[in-house]
What we know:
Number of strands: 29
Oligomer: single chain
Shape: globular
CATH class: Mainly Beta
Distance between the termini: 50 Å
Order of helices and strands: EEEEEEEEEEEHEEEEEEEEEEEEEEEEEE
Strand content: 35-45%
Structural class: mainly beta
Low-confidence stretches: 258-279
CATH topology: Pectate Lyase C-like
Largest sheet: 19 strands, mixed
Radius of gyration: 18 Å
CATH architecture: 3 Solenoid
Number of domains: 1
Helix content: under 10%
Amino acid sequence: MWLPATGTVTSSGNSKSPAISVTNCNNTQFINIDVRGGSGNGIELHDCHNVQIDASHISLCSGNGVTITGGTYCTVQSCDIDSVGAGGVIVKSDNFTTDQFNVTRSYHKVINNQIYSYAREALLYSAAVNTQEAVGVYVAFNRVHDSPQVGILYGGNSNTFEYNDVFDVVKVYSDMGAFYKVEIGELWLSRGNKLNHNYVHDALAANGFYNDNFSSGDSTIYCITERVAEGFLQPPGLFPGLCQQHLRQHTVSRDDDDRRHVQPDLCHALQQPEEDVDQ
């Protein structure tokens, strides 16, 4: 562990504090950690570099499972996060406006985790993975299920989401997506996100991929949606791209909200309910 003079690693028995809080630490691994209970977050990383949380189990805390604020090259990998009051893994910049303007990537990763039975107390907008205020995060091979509302809440810039399996979400509150983005402040600044090879299924009240107000400049390629309310929902925004999707057994395959200002560039064919379409 490289711990600078200003760095700290703390563990707390105070239920209101995170069980583990790490600040300004580099080149450290936390492996096979079991965090249970408490009314705060499970694990917090602040301005850390190359810190890995691996093969751990985080459950029964009222906050988020893991929060990563600032720093670079931190990874949450092969963890089980369940029965938490809020979200699973929350990644955000400590100076998002500047990082967004300069497209300063964090290179954080959220890989091969199972995140389920989350948002048990904060029911709305508590996501399994949240990158709304992050740049350059890689989210892949995660299994997400059992949520009252959103699955993965994304935004920010130049984030990649691929090979994620999302199902059994949006069970209580509708008008929501398994993958959901809304432009914060409606400024059309969040863009460059890539959603590739994701599988959304068996979430009957969910929109598979929902790009809400002013969401712009992202691409969704080679994704599969099956047994959801709507495959793709695109209200107003600039230059969204959808190509080579597989849509199956939906009420509606894609809905372009009439508030949309610019026609998206789509490789698309409408489908009828209960009919498979490769496009």
